[in-house]
Amino acid sequence: xxxxxxxxxxxxxxxxxxxxxxxxxxxxxxxxxxxxxxxxxxxxxxxxxxxxxxxxxxxxxxxxxxxxxxxxxxxxxxxxxxxxxxxxxxxxxxxxxxxxxxxxxxxxxxxxxxxxxxxxxxxxxxxxxxxxxxxxxxxxxxxxxxxxxxxxx
Length: 153
Known about the structure:
Radius of gyration: 18 Å
Order of helices and strands: HHEHHEEHH
CATH topology of the domain at 37-139: Arc Repressor Mutant, subunit A
Number of strands: 3
Helix content: 55-70%
Number of helices: 6
CATH architecture of the domain at 37-139: Orthogonal Bundle
CATH class of the domain at 37-139: Mainly Alpha
Distance between the termini: 25 Å
Shape: globular
CATH superfamily of the domain at 37-139: Winged helix-like DNA-binding domain superfamily/Winged helix DNA-binding domain
Strand order of the largest sheet: 1-3-2
Strand content: 5-15%
């Protein structure tokens, strides 16, 4: 028999899913209205930009972004075709490939952030105070840790 899940936890989970879907949908819509690429492009560009040397191994990007390697490869192909990323062979591993952000990628990231940050401010910052944000972040971090490795906190 399945374990009973308290209603408050089910409500919280549904809230996370619904809020995530609504904020992502709004960000996607507003990026498109501004003539900018989809949010997935921002996620990849940001992950590469914040990596050491502003380049990241493709395999590590796939893990960090929770997309399949095949999905990331197709997305990286589009970003590279747009001149926003370039692939570089790993010096220490003939099979390894890095994604590196280009100057045009940096410019696109800043343009997209202007729209994305406004959406986040109008949805999250305006709805949740700093104390609530800290509580939510801590709870979701524990949830992430348990989901990834099953460790008890």
